[in-house]
Amino acid sequence: MSEATTPTCPPTAARPSVRIRHSTSLGPYSHLRIERNLLVTDWSALGEGEFALRARWPEAGSDPLRDPRLLLRTVRQSGLIVAHAAYGVPLSHQTLLRALEYEIPTPVPDPGAPPGAAGGTGRTHAVTVDLSVAPTSRHGRVGSLSMRFRIRRPGAPTARARATFDYVSPTAYRRLRGERAEVAWADWPVPPGIEPERAGRYDPRNVVLAADGRPHGWLLRNDTADDVLFDHPVDHVPGLVLMEAADQAARARLFPVLYAPTRVRMEFSRYVEFDRPCVIEAEPFREPDAPGLSVRVTGSQDGEQAVRAELYGTVE
């Protein structure tokens, strides 16, 4: 749920009026170490609390209705870049994702490659992100940012997202995490994943669920070989992995029906550790005013709920 960059990152934030045009300049702001994982190419401030960012999505797997990872990565990167570059959140601070909502309208006219597909033609799609930000201050500094995103592609419906981020100083984070602030990276068992088609994915390397003997429950599978979800070592399971687990669990719960979530609400209440089992469960539920199918997904560790998601979608 939280992330921070290494001490080698630039120590100061850019002014809101500056447009950074090169992706190499944005790497530290996005907390990414692998350059090809960076989707956002530049940003600019349009006015108080209003920003525009540009991104490039690879053509392969660029349909967010079938696979929302590009959309969620773009939201994450946009939020981090604006927080650090425009609002001066120190790069040493941890970013905590409290809540996330996103909506993907239908239909998506260009389905592109199968979900999770790698490779492709090498072509990319231009993406524009319109971002509105409402800051909350604590002790004279930015303590949290509420963000609203509009993600636009030529010829495709506009996707929308909302997120709330909190920021924690290194000292406060050490108090919060204690001995859990240090972890032996990748030193945990990785069980075999479920069938990719059951999770709505194409590549078995992208599956984050493992069978645990129950028909509607799974174990979270943290395979650091997926360097998109695990770009760099951290001390707890990244929020992006938990988002992916919710999406895959909803699809797996309704399989062989092909389920496509179009609206998702998520809340994060505690950290998920790497060295203890995290149980992912999914159950359909009825929402009176929601068309289509609804699925509630929870992630629990040591008997305590860590993440909750409600997904609303359609069947193909």
UniProtKB/TrEMBL annotation:
Residues 34-165, 200-305 form the A-factor biosynthesis hotdog domain. Coiled coil: none annotated. Transmembrane segments: none annotated. It holds the Pfam family AfsA. It comes from the Bacteria. NCBIfam families: ScbA_BarX_GamBu. This is A-factor biosynthesis protein. It comes from Streptomyces pyxinae.
